């Protein structure tokens, strides 16, 4: 097995489960040590840390933080450095997702969705930038195909992800040439955890994919791995991992 990331350290936000866990597993399998950030998924985070450390001792650690607390974001980076003594990649995966139809939006909705999906990646990236410059590192942001084509009734979420796509391109300019910054825009990979999308909605979404099926979290993880380990001349780009849905909506 290739260990292209041997000796590298990656911080993955929202790394305890779902797509974040798949990203952590793939990067770890290629030799990286991983700092797994989580907010409330303590049980899943501990299980994943034990799984990864059983494969390679002291190669995974946990960090609990609420990313809405801007003042604490620099501590996320400091704690990663304290544990592993370096930082080679930041994966801004953590996200909040819920509907905000026109007429029902509130300032609290804005704070939650913009805070998690845009503000936290911005200030985490700022805190990580000096250390990534030293290591010739990488930032990968998890955007969304709905950054380009807004999702009906998800106004603030769509705005936030559009902002994150813009942030990706802006940071690529700001941090070049030492740091590469790219994004991955997933489509139908995993469904919302709250069961808010019924089977009819799911089938309608799948019908708009060219491949006529959902993807797998590891499809996203493979794209993240590519951007970190196998794309030294790629920056400022966003890869859609969506089965072709974004060109068939």
Strand order in space, largest sheet: 3-2-1-4-5-6-7
Output the radius of gyration.
17 Å
Which structural class do you get from the secondary structure elements? alpha/beta
| Shape label | globular
Order of SSEs: EHEHEHEHEHEHHE
Average pLDDT, all residues: 94
Q: What is the helical fraction, as a range of percent? A: 40-55%
Number of helical regions: 7
What's the β-strand tally?
A: 7
Structure description:
- There is one protein chain.
- With 249 residues, the protein is α/β, with parallel strands linked by helices.
- The protein is 44% helix and 14% strand.
- It has seven helices and seven strands.
- A seven-stranded parallel sheet has the order 3-2-1-4-5-6-7, sandwiched between helices.
- Helix 1 (18-29) links the parallel strand 1 (9-12) and strand 2 (33-38).
- Helix 4 (107-135) packs parallel to helix 5.
- The longest helix is centred in the middle third of the chain and has 29 residues, at 107-135.
């Amino acid at each position: 097995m290739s260990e292209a990331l041997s000796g590298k350290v990656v911080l993955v936000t929202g790394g305890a489960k779902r797509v974040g866990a798949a990203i952590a597993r793939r990067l770890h399998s290629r030799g990286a040590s991983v700092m797994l950030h989580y907010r409330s998924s303590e049980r899943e985070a501990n299980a994943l840390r034990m799984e990864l450390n059983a494969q390679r001792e002291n190669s995974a650690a946990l960090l609990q933080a609420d990313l809405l607390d801007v003042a604490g974001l620099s501590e996320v980076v400091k704690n990663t450095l304290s544990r592993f003594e370096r930082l080679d990649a930041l994966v801004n995966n953590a996200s909040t997702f819920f509907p905000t139809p026109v007429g029902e939006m509130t300032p609290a909705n804005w704070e939650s969705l913009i805070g998690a999906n845009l503000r936290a990646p911005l200030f985490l990236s700022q805190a990580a930038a000096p250390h990534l410059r030293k290591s010739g590192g990488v930032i990968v942001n998890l955007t969304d195909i709905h950054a380009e084509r807004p999702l009906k009734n998800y106004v603030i979420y769509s705005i936030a992800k559009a902002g994150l796509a813009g942030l990706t391109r802006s940071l690529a300019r700001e941090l070049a040439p030492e740091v590469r910054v790219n994004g991955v825009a997933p489509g139908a990979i995993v469904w919302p955890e709250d069961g808010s999308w019924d089977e009819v909605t799911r089938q309608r979404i799948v019908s708009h994919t060219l491949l006529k099926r959902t993807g797998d979290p590891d499809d996203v993880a493979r794209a993240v791995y590519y951007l970190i380990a196998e794309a030294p001349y790629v920056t400022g780009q966003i890869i859609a991992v969506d089965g072709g849905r974004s060109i068939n909506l």
